[in-house]
Amino acid sequence: MTWQGWVQIALFAALITVVVKPLGGHIARSLDGCGQVQHVLAPIENGLYRLAGVNPAEEQSWVGYALALLWFHLVGILALYALQRVQNLLPLNPQQFDAVTPDLALNTAVSFATNTSWQSYSGETTLSYLSQMAGITVQSFLSAATGVAVAIALVRGFARRSARTIGNFWVDITRVTLYVLLPVCVIATLILVWQGVPQTFGPYVSATTLEGASQVLARGPVASQVAIAVLSGDGGGFFNANSAHPFENPTALTGMLEMLLIFLIGVALTNSFGRMVGDQRQGWALFAAMAVMFAVGLVTVCAGETTPNRAFAGFGINQAPGELQAGGNMEGKEVRFGPGQSALFATLSTASSDGAVDSMHDSFMPLSGLVLMGNMMLDEVIVGGPGSGLFGMLLFAIVAVFVAGLMIGRTPEYLGKKIEGNEVKMTMLALLCVPAFILGSTAVAMVLPAGLAGLSNSGPHGFSEALYAYTSGAATNGSAFAGLNANTMFYNLTLAAAMFVGRFIVIVPVLCIAGTLAAKRIVPTSRGTLPTHGGLFVGLLVGVAVIVGGLTFFPALALGPVAELFAMQMGLTY
Predict the structure, then answer these.
(1) Residue 112 in contact with residue 142, Cβ under 8 Å?
(2) Which phi and psi angles does 207 have, rounded to 5°?
(3) Global pTM?
(4) Which of 247, 303, 316, 422 is most buried, by CB atoms within 10 Å?
(5) Cβ–Cβ under 8 Å, residues 309 and 331
(6) Is the distance from CB of 355 to CB of 479 less than 8 angstroms?
(7) 175 domain residue, yes or no
(8) Which residues span the domain enclosing 71?
């Protein structure tokens, strides 16, 4: 790692830590309905309620909240599917793209409605400007707002006493969109345009290369989509190369901005949690647990990508850093980014639920690939997506206090709420349904001809391609190893199912937990109460998250990246 790489990592860590408290406070105030910014935008908010026939003062039970959420996103899936199927008949299609095929349209609709952004297509050759804006960009806003709303609903469950309601879904997504997502995206879009990211309705243009050949340069309303894509935890690229494309990520400043946006809301929500439960130390404890796991993963990936690639050892290739090269494993990476920023960006995008990439994960070293998959296999609680990272970490917190209660023979408590049978059952359902679907789907893909046909590699690396795809889909991440041919009927449908399960079969148990906790009274602390704001609890929480993920996925990882690592050390190829 060069000194520039370390400076970049240190700068990112400093900036993201500084923003936690102010943004977390703003989110908490906005969702409680009393922030100063709401006085400015209140007429817009109230007008939307009148238009939709929503009474903002009327709250919902967890069942009503869940039903509203599910119906809302079912309509969103159908609308995005229909838009793709008839895009050839609609305006803002200067390239005259045909309608998207049914299986790909379904996969894409589910992908963006679930905040996954898995893309089995190349955006610049498949979707019209209207589909990108009215379909992809709109769903990026709505799916992110839903994640934050669910997290806040769960926090209300811990904060309220003997309550029958957990909020109003329509109010929550409106306020998240108006007061959090839109302001940040407007600023980010202006910065991206300033740095050279296109924002136009003009058609693609042709340019003459230095060799005299003609090359088509794709463009469009890119900046506005990139801003919400990285902020929302969506990560879907306007172009196939995503943030490795110079029109999505042209400069060092845009690279840093996009990385900050990826983590921005996820880290801030830890502070929102602390404020809403009346003890900011609780939020900092969750932030510390996330930071520890992220740091370990980042160091591992950086070490793997900044050292020479053993596979090139016999070719006489100079892989040492110098004045004219960054050195290390440069396969699949942009020269202008180097292995340092590529490692940071990849760790960020898989530790969150973002899925944006500025390098091809298929070309990372085996140990690095293991970490990237491991980040997602931990239910993406290392910051995670907007909202999903927080409620995922709170699920592990429930497991942690349950384990601690078993060790000391005491009924487990968290933030004054007794954790009883119903909460534990719903927690385990939410935590285990995703691994079950990932492992089951991967196993099916590895024995059916339709699944094997999509692999571009044999042996452990080919297995890793399929395992990564289903992990990315069910964990609502959306990034890919980039070696899998996923645009087939088999993968489009099975990955759509994985994304649906990974999003909504997790959210419903979380809302159930929120409802049962809100109905409980707060138990006063005593000498036997486990403190949940100190280093002991942080260590317990990290241990529970890693052990649960490790025990669940280690056999599969042993067949993929671990086997590939040993094969590379022994000089074997596939």
Answers:
(1) no
(2) -130, 150
(3) 0.94
(4) 247
(5) yes
(6) yes
(7) yes
(8) 26-265
